[in-house]
Structures are given as C-alpha cells and as structure tokens.
C-alpha cells in the first residue's frame, strides 16, 4: 500500500478509490505515516485534525474527481470551521473560523480528504517559510539546508517529500510558483479572478492574490483547477470565460507560439548560471517542438522596480490592516510578530490614503505595459527565481526595514524578480520543474501568457511535460526519503 501511495499522483489515487482497489482510510493511513516519518526534519505539516478527516470519510465523501485523496491546506486563507489557523503568526495562534470559505467548500466537494494545514510565513509575506509560530524553518526535502520557498512553503515541502500528492497554496507575489521552483513541482497561477476568494475578503492585496495548488503532475493541477474554477458571488474581478476545461486543454496542441526568451531579470540584471541554463535548455526544447523562439527585447519603459515599490506599499498596508483587525483595539505585543511584519506596519503608517491609491494605480498601469509587451510574443519564458533555493536563514523574516527587505540589495526582489510581475498584471503563469542544479537543487522555469490565456498556457505546459517529463526525478527523491531507493 505504501509503495502504491508514494508512486501515484492524486488523479491515480482517486481512480483506485473509485475502482475499490484502496479505501480513503487506507490512503489517509499512508499520509499520516509519512507525516510521522518526515515532518520532524521538514517542519511542513501543522494542526493535524485526523478526527475531522476520519469523520468526513465515515459521513460519505462527495463523488468528486479526487474522492478519497489525502490533502493539506495552507495555514493562511482557505478558511474552514473544522481547521483552526495560525495565519503563520503567533498573534493568530489557533484562531477559529465561523465559516467555510468558498475555496474550501469547492475542494471538499472534489472529494479531497483534508487532514491538516501546512506552514506559511507570517501573513504570507516572504519567499521563505521561517515564521516563529512553527518553532523553526520549513526545510526543503531536496536539501534541508535550503528553503522550500514561500509563502506556500509547507505545501511545497509536503508534496515534494511524498506526504501528499497535491496540496493547497495561494499566490500574491509568487507564493505558489516560488515553492514549486524550490521543490521541483508544478505551480500554476491562473488569471486574476479565475478562482473564488470569498466570502471573508473583498480582494487580496489589491487583486494580486489568488489561490492555487502544488502538485507533482500537471494533470493534478489541471483537475484541481477545474474542481474550483470560477469566481464566487460578488467577486470584484471576472476573468474571460474558459472555452473548455483545464483537463481538456492538456490534450489540445497549443499551436505554433511566438516565444520570448529572457535569462536576465526583466530589468536586465544577470541571474545565476543554473537559471540561465534552465531557460536556454527550455528555449531549445520549445524550438524543437516547432515554436518560434527569440530573445526578449526588454522594453525601456517597463520599469519593474517602480512596480515592486508599489507592490510593497500595497502589501504593507494589507498587513497592517490584518494585524489591527485581529487586535480589535487591543495593544500589540510586538513579540508576537516577526520583524518583517513589524516593519510592514511601520512602513504602512508612513503612507497616506493617496499613497495607497497611487500604488494601486501604479500596479494597474504596469499591467497595461505588460499587456503591451505580449503584443510582440505569445509566451514569455524566464527562470522562476534568479537563483536556486536560498539557504535557510538567508531571507529570514527579521529585517524590520520592510522596503529594504523587499527591494534592497540581497532582498526579496533580487531573489524573486519575476513572479510578482504577473500578480501585478493578473496574467496567468506557471513554474515547471525542468532543471536541477549541479548540486541537485530544483530550478524552475517560468512561463507566462496574456490575460485570460490560461488554456493555451496549460496546453503548452502539457506539451512540455510529454517532451521533458519530470515525474521520475521527483520519484527518486520520494523513494530515497522513504528508504525505497
């Protein structure tokens, strides 16, 4: 049973449940055994509610596409009555929700058996997962001296290690795609508004935040996106309607695409040689697949740096709002927050309402410039990160100068200069596990397309997965961790 569990993606496990080859309880046993064996080294899975999972099985699982598959939700968002949350923070420790989010309801309707949450940086701020509330950093199963990424770092580590085949994440500046790159997984960010965000919030971070998934196989990502697709009632953004499903898109050839290749940052700065190699190898692959591949000619007026300052202002204000909401007039004990969060609040306090609206305008103006860039190409290919996964502690959330933490030398923007671009523009983007460094660390390749082109992006990703499959490389790690190699 364990061998079957570790060698199957979520789609395969659901098919075996449907055929009565295995039971949901047996699969949950395997997942919990994996948690017990691996979580002490990874620190990825928290707030385990086995009783809730067993009760959901006894009550009769919905006949959804992932019926019986063990599942984890991020310890941020995905509000659920049966799953208290820390939101990555000691200030929120064991907070109870009075409602189920639409995202959680749709995941439950898919038949997923949620049994715990996964670690997140405090309030989702940061590309590493090292929040104090968890008593230590979340580590990368490929090499525990390195980060699993953030903010969905716990989900990335849990999936890469084989604890579960897929897990929930969310992405406000790369928080699905960064751990996907760091952990050798698939991480797809849909077009803005594609997935439900309510009812607990009107929008996340000025419309830049959206939910998603960390998976080993592309078909799991496609199936999960189909299961939760569509904005909920009252959503402030509404994306172009899909012509079919994500699963159907996987079987459709994408056609010949104009590919713009960029192995520098979008400001023209160099990236790590491993990232350059990842992009160049992907360019050769795409050319062999019949696409038209050319180097990106960087627009002189793209001005990614100004966008990142605006992004930082919006996130700082959102962070301050969240903290003050939970305090509800009570004084703040600063020891309950990480240094970066204290810095975000201090930075937000220096901003006016006009500053915030100016930042929103700057973000949307940047989105228009990105849309114009895509009149010259169909897909933009870059590294997901500017270098392989950072050592644990390198981007620890201790810097109380929030602007410096984000945009200063050696800060977040230097490390992750690509992903937040597409949260700002709202365009779909995906990180695929197409390269590993000489030292065995995953290096993701990032592909982005115009607003609403989710299906074409999925079709291209499927074409790439067939031509350059990654499942065997992932499986070797899982086998090694399980002592099966």
TrEMBL record:
Pfam families the UniProt entry points to:
Amidase
Q: Which InterPro entries match?
A: Amidase (IPR000120), Amidase_CS (IPR020556), Amidase_dom (IPR023631), AS_sf (IPR036928)
Domain of life of the native organism: Bacteria
- Amidase domain: which residues? 26-457
Listed Gene3D superfamilies: Amidase signature (AS) domain
Please provide the record's keywords in A-Z order: Hydrolase
Read off the SUPFAM superfamilies from this record. Amidase signature (AS) enzymes
Entry-linked PANTHER family: GLUTAMYL-TRNA(GLN) AMIDOTRANSFERASE SUBUNIT A, MITOCHONDRIAL, TRANSAMIDASE
Instruction: Indicate the family of this protein.
Output: Belongs to the amidase family.
Name under which the protein is recorded: Amidase/6-aminohexanoate-cyclic-dimer hydrolase
List the top taxonomic levels of the source: Bacteria, Pseudomonadati, Pseudomonadota, Alphaproteobacteria, Rhodobacterales
């Amino acid at each position: 049973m364990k061998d079957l569990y570790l060698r199957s993606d979520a789609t395969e496990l659901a098919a075996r449940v449907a055929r009565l080859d295995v039971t949901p309880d047996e699969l949950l046993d395997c997942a919990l055994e994996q948690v017990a064996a691996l979580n002490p080294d990874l620190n990825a899975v928290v707030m385990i509610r086995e009783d809730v999972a067993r009760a959901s099985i006894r009550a009769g699982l919905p006949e959804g596409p992932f019926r019986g598959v063990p599942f984890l939700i991020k310890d941020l968002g995905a509000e659920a009555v049966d799953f208290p949350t820390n939101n990555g923070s000691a200030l929120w420790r064991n907070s109870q929700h009075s409602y189920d989010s639409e995202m959680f309801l749709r995941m439950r309707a898919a038949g997923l058996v949620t049994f715990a949450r996964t670690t997140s940086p405090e309030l989702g701020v940061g590309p590493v997962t090292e929040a104090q509330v968890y008593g230590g950093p979340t580590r990368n199963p490929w090499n525990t001296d390195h980060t699993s990424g953030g903010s969905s770092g716990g989900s990335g580590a849990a999936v890469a290690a084989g604890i579960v085949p897929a897990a929930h994440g969310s992405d406000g500046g790369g928080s699905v795609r960064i751990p996907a790159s760091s952990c050798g997984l698939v991480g797809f960010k849909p077009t803005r508004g594609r997935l439900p965000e309510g009812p607990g919030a009107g929008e996340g971070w000025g419309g830049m935040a959206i939910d998603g998934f960390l998976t080993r196989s592309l078909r799991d990502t496609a199936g999960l996106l189909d299961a939760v697709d569509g904005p909920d009632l009252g959503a402030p953004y509404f994306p172009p309607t899909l012509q079919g499903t994500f699963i159907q898109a996987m079987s459709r050839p994408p056609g010949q695409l104009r590919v713009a290749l960029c192995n520098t940052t979008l400001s023209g700065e160099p990236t790590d040689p491993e990232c350059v190699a990842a992009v160049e190898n992907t360019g050769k692959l795409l050319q062999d697949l019949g696409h038209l591949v050319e180097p990106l000619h960087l627009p002189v007026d793209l001005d990614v740096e100004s966008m990142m300052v605006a992004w930082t202002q919006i996130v700082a204000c959102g962070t301050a709002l969240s903290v003050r909401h939970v305090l509800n007039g009570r004084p703040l004990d600063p020891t309950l927050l990480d240094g970066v969060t204290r810095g975000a609040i201090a930075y937000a306090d220096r901003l006016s309402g006009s500053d915030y609206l100016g930042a929103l305008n700057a973000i949307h103006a940047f989105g228009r410039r990105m849309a114009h860039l895509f009149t010259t190409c169909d897909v933009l290919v870059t590294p997901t990160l500017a270098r392989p996964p950072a050592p644990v502690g390198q981007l620890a959330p201790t810097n109380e100068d929030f602007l410096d933490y984000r945009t200063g030398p050696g800060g977040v923007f230097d490390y992750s200069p690509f992903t937040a671009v597409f949260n700002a523009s709202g365009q779909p983007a995906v990180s695929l596990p197409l390269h590993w460094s000489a030292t065995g660390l995953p290096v993701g390749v990032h592909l982005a397309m115009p607003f609403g082109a989710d299906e074409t992006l999925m079709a291209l990703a499927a074409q790439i997965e067939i031509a350059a499959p990654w499942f065997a490389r992932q499986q070797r790690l899982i086998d090694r961790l399980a002592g099966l190699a």
